[in-house]
Design a protein that fits this description.
The protein is of the alpha/beta class. The chain folds into two domains: 3-59, Alpha-D-Glucose-1,6-Bisphosphate, Chain A, domain 3 (3-Layer(aba) Sandwich); 75-256, Rossmann fold (3-Layer(aba) Sandwich), CATH 3.40.50. It has helices spanning 3-8, 21-31, 75-82, 87-93, 112-119, 131-145, 150-157, 194-202, 209-218, and strands spanning 11-15, 34-35, 46-51, 54-59, 102-105, 123-128, 159-163, 175-179, 224-230, 243-246, 250-256. The strands form two sheets. A seven-stranded mixed beta sheet has the order 7-6-5-8-9-11-10, with helices on both faces. A four-stranded mixed beta sheet has the order 2-1-3-4. α5 links the parallel β5 and β6 (123-128).
């Protein structure tokens, strides 16, 4: 089974309203997933709900069933923007004065960190290997490009999306690689946010991705590699970073190469 089939097996497509059934079937074909008419029939860890102009993930058979969307104009991201919480991530990739590095976000996920960096003025290439998330990111970028919020539109114009494995991507020397792999360290699981737990359910079969990605990133001819880590976890591969930028819940390990 290919990686994309394995990951798509973790997800079932469900129409949000009965009329969206043909659309749900098309999306399921595109993602190589199963489609069912009713959420109760989904037997996978996660369901992708499809509506005419919306798309969201929800955990199946779980107590916590809040929907997870990719929405760059969401109040949460706009608050993060205004509260200045983005500065640490900006500093970690090397935003300083007029310098705005070219960033490769090799673990795009829900695109939040990529959006933050683009909003700070960086050009960001987002790579996501989950076809489900890549589709959600694609639609979110399309919506952002016509957003009524000028800053959202501007940030989206600095974001380019690629679907696939980052390790197959050809990287230029001026790039900073940013990694936010799934935290596989069990001790940190309590700290994993609710929406990231949906991503974990979607990718239950991928093991040691953090170590593998780190080894790949460090072997690239780039200026800098930045890794987001839980505050108290050891550095990946036990490799001491050049410096560390600490936030309240996470830290950024910065490797200047
Ligand atoms: C913790 S999430 C990233 C969250 C993201 N920083 C955000 O702000 O929304 C990690 C993501 O990396 C993706 N990923 C892991 N290994 C990858 C690879 N080799 N290439 C592309 N994406 C990968 C996973 O599919 C997952 O969606």
């Amino acid at each position: 089974m290919s990686l994309s089939e394995e990951m798509s097996g973790a997800c079932t497509v469900v129409p949000a309203v009965a009329g969206a059934w043909p659309l749900a079937q098309r999306v399921a074909d595109q993602l190589n997933c199963r489609a069912v008419r009713l959420a109760d029939e989904a037997r996978s860890p996660v369901a992708l709900f499809v509506d005419y102009d919306d798309l969201w993930l929800q955990k199946c058979m779980a107590e916590q069933v809040s929907p997870v969307r990719v929405d760059f104009a969401s109040p949460g991201l706009q608050y993060r923007r205004k509260s200045g919480q983005n500065e640490l991530l900006g500093r970690a990739v090397g935003v300083k004065g007029d310098t705005r590095p070219l960033v490769l976000d090799a673990t795009a996920g829900l695109g939040r960190d990529a959006y933050v960096l683009a909003d700070l003025g960086c050009s960001v290439t987002l790579i996501e290997r989950s076809p489900v998330l890549a589709l959600m990111l694609k639609q979110a970028l399309e919506r952002a490009s016509i957003s009524a919020i000028t800053s959202v539109q501007l940030a989206s114009s600095r974001m380019q999306l690629q679907s696939g494995d980052s390790r197959a991507y050809k990287i230029s020397q001026e790039t900073v690689i940013y990694l936010d792999p799934m935290f596989t360290d069990r001790r940190s699981s309590a700290a994993v946010k609710k929406d990231l737990s949906v991503l974990q359910a979607l990718h239950a079969s991928v093991e040691n991705e953090d170590e593998q990605l780190f080894v790949w990133a460090m072997s690239q001819p780039v200026r800098r590699v930045v890794v987001k880590r839980p505050l108290k976890s050891p550095a990946l591969h036990h490799r001491k970073p050049s410096h560390v930028i600490k936030g309240k819940a996470v830290r950024f390990d910065v490797y200047v190469l």
